[in-house]
Amino acid sequence: MSLTPPNAPATETTETTETTVLHAARTVPTEAREAVDALRRIVADLHRELTRYSLVVCTAGNVSARVPGHDLMVIKPSGVAYEELTPANMVVTDLFGSVVEGDYAPSSDTAAHAYVYRHMPAVGGVVHTHSTYATTWSALAEPIPCVLTMMADEFGGDVPIGPFALIGDDSIGRGIVDTLTGSRSPAVLMASHGPFTIGKDAAAAVKAAVMVEDVARTVHLAGQAGTPKRLEPQDIDKLYARYQNVYGQTQGATS
Ligand SMILES: [Zn+2]
Fold first, then answer.
1. Angle value at C-alpha 133, between 245 and 193, nearest 5 degrees
2. Centroid of ligand 1 to alpha carbon of 61 (angstroms)
């Protein structure tokens, strides 16, 4: 992830054979300006949540947001310290990771974020961290079993493991998409790497990143003390339906 040279190219995928997403925009269209500027602020601010919850060290970790209605995304610059992240140094790229606006190279994980946006149209935000407990499960290549009601609520079941994938092409993005397509979980633990989370917007993806670390820690501790008890599938379904369809439409409370 982000322990890479600051100017590492974000992607090598700009000339893939995919044709479903145009990436001709070389500037931010006028009609997208307001949304892009708002997302620069939102994405810059959301990075503070990663440090607030101790999900990242050094420059590791990144948040991005899709620009609704445009084949654009806003993402963290590569190699810039968290305390130096501002709306102005966020990077706007197309959905192949090519820079459209910005003074810095985009995050070294840009290709993975872009792949997710190209293949999961409902996703509006993506987050990646190496948060300690979630990454512990990645190191073991073990899904986090659904043993807590909050896991049923937020993840609808186990938090799945994705394939081992090397950075540098579409492998990470493909692994995220293949694992999360058809899954209720907004989080995937990429094997030997760490969590990637998705959401309808960047704030939702950040919340999933915070939650996955929280349950990863609790279930790990439970496993040290005994054998955590899996919830019954029908109870998981009921909890998930209630939380997502009823409770989720209230004021967005988290408990
Ligand atoms: Zn990483």
1. 95
2. 7
